[in-house]
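--- STAGE predict ---
source: upstream dedup step, 1 unique chain passed
mode: sequence only
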Amino acid sequence: MTEQPVGSKNLICPSLWCLVLLGVLGIFVFVARFDQAFPAASIDLKLSRTQIVAQARKWASTIGYPEKDAIESTIFNYDDYSKTFLEYELGQSKANALMRNEIPIWYWSTRFCKPFEMEELNVWISPEGQLRAFRREMENDRPLPSLSHEEAEALSLKFVCDCVGLSLKDTKLVKDASVKQPHRTDHYFTWEDTAQEFKGARLRTYVYVAGNAVSEYNNYLYVPEKFTRKFNEIRSYNNLLKNVSSIFYSLLSSAILFAFLWAFASGRIRWRFVLPVGLLAALFDVLNWLNSIPNLINAYTTTMSFNGYLVDKAVSMLWSAASSVLGCIVMVGALEAV
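--- STAGE serialize ---
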């Protein structure tokens, strides 16, 4: 009978209790700061996904896009750049309050497209059900009746005020121009809000008229170029740190690989433990792929068949799952043996 070293039990128990205490403390901090660290989780989604899709279809009909037999995909997304600006310049708490109520950051994105057709429609709807933006892409050489610049501006104002329900009372026209296409003349207009200002940023409304119809609309936060230059400088330092850390990551990965080869050659790997862990990693990879199917459909390129696209992504998923199994086996086998 093997004797247990004297005092080993006393050495292990306090360590376990310390881990439990740290875990409880971590949960407390997580719950207390969750809304501040992850503002997207605190968004009040007033409408369900089904209701959002129904509204997107309604807008597609209003805009004039033939959505029958179109491939649909709906995902939840946000304006990452504007969000970063608000959090950096105003602080997390004030930025969260503005992003929930005043500034359009969060949106549902519904895409309508058809294989081998250039024309497609993207509709962005806020969590409250308001149209945030849309873009109808079409061929530049498509023949359409043309409007004068003044008629196009009147059409844009009518669309924004009557169809969208957005007031342009306290705005000014900051940019407008005409674009000559092969068989039509297009126009675009940008209005800027003069009533509110957020550290140099202002809300803007953009409308593009293709021929005689509105083909693009966007209500967004215009971030000043001064912040863009500052942000690019910050990102340059981030990229430098990333490159430095990749050196240590490569060294650590090489060490793990050599440790695995040593453990394999010396028969120290417990395969009954390592293999199930690797298969579990593959299962998580597959579940993650299934959860991301709406994003995969949303990223579909219409220059290839839809079924071929899905098969290609499924094959990529299988390769990714196999890589996860192999990587997890190497890591767990090496570290567990060490």
